[in-house]
Amino acid sequence: MPVTGPDFISLQARDLAASQAFYERYLGLVRSPAGPPHAVVFATEPIAFALRDVVPGTDLTGPGAGAAIWLHATDVQAIHDALAADGHTIVAAPIDGPFGRTFTFADPDGYRITLHDRA
User: Which residues contact 82 (CB under 8 A, 6 or more apart)?
Assistant: First the structure.
């Protein structure tokens, strides 16, 4: 049976509480009541998105190198503006392209996250 597609995405975070606050504040994510104590699972659809404590022995130097993490958002420009106003790293400025309004930022652990508004 072939793989049918992504079902769960989890990022390791050095400071779980700070990363949770970041994703809640800037992306408007809401914590799901589900999830283990070492993780924060957000109520996202169709794929679950979570943050978790760093797995012992994991080196987060250059986290996410080579990974492309794209999330759909309804107001990409407003999120960009809030992140930029608070001094967060914008990796690629907003552009209009085949995926709608798109930009990339770095989260508190350096993961590069791209937001787009075309479903």
Answer: 26
pLDDT tens digit sequence for 4-33? 778 899 999 999 999 999 999 999 999 999
The structure tokens listed for 56 are: 């012992």
Which residues 6+ apart lie within 8 Å of 74 measured at CB?
A: 117
The letter for the amino acid at 100 is G
Task: State the residue for tokens 């943050």.
Answer: 51
Encoded tokens for 28 = 């408007």
Question: What is the DSSP-derived secondary structure letter of residue 75?
Answer: -
Report pTM.
Answer: 0.86
Angle between helices 76-85 and 16-27 (to 10 degrees): 130
User: For tokens 């760093």, what's the residue?
Assistant: 54
48-53 and 39-42 strand pairing: antiparallel
According to DSSP, the residues that pair with 42 across neighbouring strands are 31, 49
